[in-house]
Amino acid sequence: MNNSKILVTGASGFIGMNLVHQLVSAGHEVTCFVRPTSNVDELRPMRCRVVFGDVTDRASLAEYVKGQNAIFHLAAKTKALNKQEMMHVNVVGVSNLMIACRECESPPVVVLMSSLAAVGPSSEIRPHIESDECRPVSNYGVSKEQAEAVARKFCSDVPVSIVRPPIVLGARDREGLALFKSIDFLGMHMVPGGEQKQFSIIHVGDLIRAMMAVASEGCRLNGDQSESGVYFAAADEIPTY
Q1: Above 90 in pLDDT, residue 82?
Q2: Buried b / exposed e across 86-106, counting CB within 10 Å, b at 16+?
Q3: Do the beta carbons of residue 43 and residue 12 sit within 8 Å?
Q4: To 10 degrees, what angle do helices 93-102 and 139-153 make?
Q5: Which of 15, 98, 160, 187 pairs as cysteine with 154 (C-beta 3.0–4.6 A)?
């Protein structure tokens, strides 16, 4: 994936901005697809092209899919007022992207950002592996599971891989910063549920390296429910909250 043309949807988000920075630094020609209401102040100095649209509007997306070598699809709703809104963005958005890619003369490689939430919590006996059955327990997880199912339907026409990160930490994480600021100010933080449950985490830099490796060297989905083309990405450490 040398000097490639790459489209990043959801580029103004925490992970997206870090990804764009790394891609540009590696010499790629990057187009950032963001909503008209997105704050792009941090993207502007990165020597990337910023374009505006909505993944739920297929026409606005299709225009920028053409001519790309690879696409990192990060655009998603993590919070919404209702389940329908989340499903519309997270599932319809993937469908629109897949259709736009299928219509290209040479479909680009697509790396779909999913989530550990698509599979649901692992048991206390062992962590999840890629071949485990999906059993999401949240609306967000259900939307990501269904987005993965949509991607599988197009995999005979579009080369696509799925990356499922857990909790992501690192630079530009505004939500995480607010949490750490409150701990710094109060000198304490309440543990949800009062239990010492373990969590999977990953640093954003490690996640981006994993995503770029999947784009250039990874396996692709093959249409069935096998683990081919699906990747968890997490740190070796499994800390408690």
Answers
A1: no
A2: bbbbbbbbbbbbbbbbeeeee
A3: yes
A4: 10
A5: 98
